[in-house]
């Protein structure tokens, strides 16, 4: 004979004395001595009796308690443990509520150690921050599909192709990070989005650079003795990238050689060794002049703290009415090498900090051509501060 259901009524619930009262069908009402009360479901699963809370009374009404009980009784009839199933559903719901901005920040934090300067410059995160998170940042990562990604990156897919490519790459990493966290995401969403967006038709724009013939006049105009001007002079003399120069520490300089830590070098994929830069006498004079501004050992300190920013030298050139960028002086140097010297290709490329040759070739060739590059640096310095700079003797190998 089936057990009767719905024994209790709303009218009698408040009047009940402390104790446990069955409503039938496994639904129970527990009135505590302190006046509080709650509902629970009593059921048997795998030969064991369980009591599953259904909520506090009166927040959970008699009708709601009966509906909840029926839902979980159906789960038990399927051969599942109701309590465990509810916990599983709660965990899944929590996982699926993780929004993209939170996952992106977590992915960024987990990768800082492998990024240059622990990612402090923000270059890894900025494509996401500027072009993805404003539109998708508050979207649960589990709900993001290829159409969302397509619509987000479509405005820059062709006009800012390199930036869009970086944003897509970073987003793919974030999605894989989400999957590693156990979240339910579509790992193919970025590849599908690429298929929807189509092949990029953007032609890369080269960074504007000053011709090597005009570089000496600009170099000689940097005579104000400011931190920014000294930084630009050393940047031009050494043809290095902005990051290692801005973060140059006096401990890295030993006489006529500046040693850049491996982690500060870009463009040397797989490199684990530091990179030596020869310093001409002119470069050493610049270092000596800049040393009076040094703070905490850094040769080019910022106005308030840290070192000068990535934009400092660029803004200086802007004020001069120039469209050329500081990074372009690497091209100026490389063009001078190609047009006026007989420098071997490997030496010229190594002077720019580029990786030359394949992995096998590099494993046998241990030289960094330092002495040949030292001659090249001396000649380049002579070009820069010589009045008639275009009359340059050809450098023989």
Automatic annotation (TrEMBL):
What is the protein name given in its UniProt record? Integrase
Similarity comment text for this entry: Belongs to the 'phage' integrase family.
Organism, as annotated:
Shimia haliotis
A Pfam family recorded for this sequence: Arm-DNA-bind_3
Q: Which UniProt keywords apply?
A: DNA integration, DNA recombination, DNA-binding
GO annotation, biological process: DNA integration; DNA recombination
Query: What InterPro entries does the record tag this protein with?
Result: DNA_brk_join_enz, Integrase-like_cat_sf, Integrase_catalytic, Integrase_DNA-bd_sf, Integrase_DNA_bind_dom, Integrase_recombinase_N, Phage_int_M, Phage_Integrase
Q: Can the keyword Mitochondrion be found in this entry's annotation? A: no
